[in-house]
C-alpha cells in the first residue's frame, strides 16, 4: 500500500528535478541543441512538472486505502519517469551524436501509463 508521504515525496523530487532540468535546458543546452531537440526537452520538463504538482496534490487529498488509488499513483510515478526521462535521454544522446534508440519505445509506454493514471483518476472521481 502506498502512503501519502511517499506520493508527495515523488511529487517533490519530480518538481525539484523539473526546475533544475528546465534551467539546464534554458541555459546550458540552449546553444548545444537544435530548436526541435530543445522543444522535446522542454516537453519532458513540462510533463514532469505537471505530474509533480498532481502527485503532491493527490498526497493531500487521497488516503490510498483503495487499490484504484494505489494503481493510479503508480501509473503517474512510473509513467512520468519513463516518459520524461526517456525524452531527456533521447535528446541528450542525439545531441552527442550517439542516439540511444532503445529509449524510443519507452516514451510512448510512459505516456500510456500517464493516460491510464488519468483514466483511473476519472474513475476515482466518478
UniProtKB/TrEMBL annotation:
The chain crosses the membrane at residues 6-26, 47-65, 71-91, 103-125. Keywords: Membrane, Transmembrane, Transmembrane helix. GO terms for cellular component: plasma membrane. Coiled coil: none annotated. Its main location: membrane. InterPro entries: DUF423 (IPR006696). It is found in: Membrane. It is a multi-pass membrane protein. Belongs to the UPF0382 family. This is Uncharacterized membrane protein YgdD (TMEM256/DUF423 family). The lineage of its organism: Bacteria, Pseudomonadati, Bacteroidota, Flavobacteriia, Flavobacteriales.
Amino acid at each position: 500500500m502506498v502512503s501519502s508521504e511517499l506520493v508527495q515525496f515523488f511529487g517533490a523530487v519530480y518538481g525539484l528535478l523539473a526546475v533544475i532540468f528546465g534551467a539546464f535546458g534554458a541555459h546550458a543546452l540552449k546553444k548545444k541543441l537544435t530548436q526541435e531537440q530543445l522543444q522535446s526537452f522542454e516537453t519532458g520538463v513540462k510533463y514532469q512538472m505537471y505530474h509533480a504538482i498532481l502527485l503532491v496534490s493527490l498526497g493531500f487529498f487521497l488516503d490510498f486505502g483503495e487499490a484504484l488509488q494505489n494503481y493510479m499513483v503508480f501509473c503517474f510515478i512510473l509513467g512520468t519517469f519513463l516518459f520524461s526521462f526517456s525524452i531527456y535521454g533521447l535528446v541528450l544522446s542525439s545531441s552527442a551524436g550517439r542516439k540511444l534508440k532503445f529509449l524510443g519505445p519507452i516514451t510512448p509506454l510512459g505516456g500510456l501509463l500517464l493516460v491510464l493514471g488519468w483514466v483511473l483518476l476519472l474513475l476515482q472521481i466518478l
